[in-house]
Amino acid sequence: MIDPLLLSAFFMGLAGSGHCVAMCGGVASSLQLAVKNKQDARSYTLLYNLGRLLSYSLAGALVAGISATFASQSILISQILAFISAFFMILVGLYVMRVMATLNWLESIGKIAIWQFVVKLNRYVMPLDSKLKALGYGALWGWLPCGLVYSALTWAITTGTAAKGAAFMACFALGTAPAMLALGLTTQSITKWLNNQVVRLVMGNFLVFYGLYLLTIAVRNSLH
User: Fold this and answer.
1) CA 89, CA 206: separation in Å to the nearest integer?
2) At what angle do helices 4-15 and 75-96 cross, to 10 degrees?
3) pLDDT > 80? residue 37
4) Which of 52, 75, 82, 141 has the smallest CB count inside 10 Å?
5) Where are the alpha helices (H) located in the chain, listed in sequence order?
6) Domain ranges of the chain
7) For residue 59, what pLDDT is reported?
8) What distance in Å separates the CA atoms of residue 160 and residue 162, rounded to the nearest whole number?
9) Which segments of the protein form a coiled coil according to its record (predicted)?
10) Residue 213, pLDDT score
11) How far apart are CA 35 and CA 30, in angstroms?
């Protein structure tokens, strides 16, 4: 039986993949220009997305492992983390519906705290003349400041263990994969469907209501 938490992570990635296309679409499309052979271009695109998945999984393992250490020592910390994850789920829903730019501030923090240092490693994977570099390129861009990814990480911190945090973020990455692969392989019907206004409203509302449900649970647990 599929873990509902992992299924939620996949859906969260799928719902927000239109944002992923906006953030990383140019990078994914550039793989087509970097490789002349169409078969190699497919391989490079797959490896790029595998690199993203590995970086997301590593980040999930780190935040979940660290938070689990603190949460095990204090019920209060565990309750605070539950409130944070519910709050960010609501923000993601509003962002997916494009009602509010609720995650831009997170990306600004990420640029200062992480990306300005990570982007310097770009010189080690350019030019993209090998499959190993394509994998490294994806792993590097997996650390691109992204409010959607950061929101998923706030949920990963409540999973309880580093392994579960890694699995959660891996499922999130798989949710973003259809749109990213479609873009990289120049079959963009999936990305058009995900950016459809009705689809965004349905997915966004689901995330908002799920966030409210999580918030209700967090409040109830804090009162007991």
Assistant:
1) 10
2) 40
3) no
4) 75
5) 4-15, 17-34, 38-71, 75-96, 104-110, 116-118, 131-141, 147-156, 162-184, 189-194, 197-222
6) 4-74+101-186
7) 94
8) 7
9) none
10) 82
11) 9
The CA R_g of the chain, rounded to the nearest whole Å, is: 18
CB neighbour class for 80 (10 Å; exposed up to 12, middle 13-18, buried from 19): middle
**DSSP 8-class letter at 224:** -
Q: Report the distance separating Cα 33 and Cα 48, nearest Å.
A: 14
The SS3 of residue 128 is coil
Under 8 Å between Cβ of 32 and 193: no
Kindly report the pTM of this predicted structure.
0.81
Type of residue at 213: Y
pLDDT, tens digit (0-9, with 9 covering 90-100), for 137-151: 889 988 888 878 888
From residue 195, give the alpha-carbon distance in Å to each of 20, 36, 74, 118: 11, 29, 42, 29
